[in-house]
Fold:
Amino acid sequence: MFTHAMFEERALPRAIKEQIALVVSGINLSNYCLAAHLEILGRLGFEKSFARKLALNFESAPLDPKVMTLFQFLAKVSRQPADIERQDFDRVREAGWNDAELRRVFWSLRFMPAPTDSQPQSVSSPTFERISRNRPSKSTF
Structure:
């Protein structure tokens, strides 16, 4: 299923999904996944220096502001999932990401290892629907 999620080109292009996988693998310190996604991004034509920045400190990478906003959101989802609020989703939407794209991001995240895992497995991360719709907020959804 992970391979299918990464290779299909629905709401998100493969290059973005691989970058997401690399950023989340770096945050979660998954050596297995870091090595794999560094290699894949290289095969997709990305410079090694850029990929290393994504893996080690994505905020230092030269990213489009829209992509940076998504990666900052994913960092919060990975590090502090209980602190996600509707405003976090609103910020990502304001950057230009739509609900279909965000659902694909969360669907892909389900297959990424949690911070203490060393190999990929089907991990149930917070789902898009639960987080984006059930958190109290002053903003209108």
Q: What stands out?
A: Residues 1-6, 116-127, 134-141 have pLDDT under 50 and may be disordered. The chain has one domain: 2-134. The two ends are 31 Å apart (CA to CA). Residues 65 and 112 are 24 Å apart (CA to CA).
